Amino acid sequence: MSGELVDGYDLVIFDLDGVIFLIDRPIPGAPEAVDRLRSEGTPVAYATNNASRRAPEVAALLNGMGVPAAPAEVLNSAGAAAALLAKRFPAGSPVLVVGAEALVAEVRAAGLTPVSGAEDEPVAVVQGYGPEVGWKILAEAALAVRAGAVWVATNTDRTLPSPRGPLPGNGSLVAVLRTALDRDPDVVVGKPEPGLFTTAAALSGAKRPLVVGDRLDTDIQGAVGAGMDSLLVLTGVSGPADLLAAPPERRPTYVAADLSGLFRPADEARLPTKAGGEAAPGQGAGGQAVEAGGWRLAGTRLSGAGDPVAALLLLCGAAWDGVPGKAIEGASPEATDMLKKWDL
């Protein structure tokens, strides 16, 4: 049996929405997990695509939830987008900002001039999430891009997790302009681009960082692109059905129900390394009957009872070996109920 999952890493990089909190509520166990990492001497960082708060505001929000954080530990797409534009354009250049006041502040802090209308002849449009973004500013952005402004999106997350379920994210707002302009943004700054992760590792001097996220299409794909191991927690957007259908570039190293998985044996969370073989210990491959954590998978029939994550590891081994998730059948009451809950 392996040691604790986190033991093999010298930095843990957390996503925020869906991992640490949901909108403004901490996810149960998250403050305790971060506090335990700190008490054990493991450095942490926070990398978020949400551009609606600046780093000091994010740190204050986290501390208010009982999650210890310093502004220097927070990297967000708003600051990264502003820094990119400052390198590309002369100081004082007008930039049309679509998003929250935090993005406006980041653009101003980078030495550029935030504007809100196409008549100001902006050299760029920077678009980030903001709950007050509406038709008027989107219309100005469309006019500016058609006039030649560079279009930079902080991120393209389609949804934001919330206690009531997924809500429209910046990607949904980007889609409005994409439809109107019939083109994609010139640059997408945030995850799945690896920059936030590589910057966090460089600032910490980490040689073996671990990325923890809730989205396969941003957090996990970004970690894969950065060459980093990753842990998918099932407290946010991506669920078991998404994981079974994930292509190789979106497959995490580990999966856990929540952040407590950081302190469980690594082998209890390790996913198969690739389709068709090289499974983690005790998982098997190639269609053989396999068992783990009280579950048994024989062909397409899942039976037994136990930790749902153990069953998910078995199912991923089968799915990534070519068995469709929808083909799995429950052969015990517990398995049937779990598969139904997972929409399989």
TrEMBL record:
Pfam families: Hydrolase_6, Hydrolase_like. GO terms for molecular function: phosphatase activity. Gene3D superfamilies: HAD superfamily/HAD-like. It comes from the Bacteria. GO terms for cellular component: cytoplasm. This is Acid sugar phosphatase. It comes from Paractinoplanes ferrugineus.
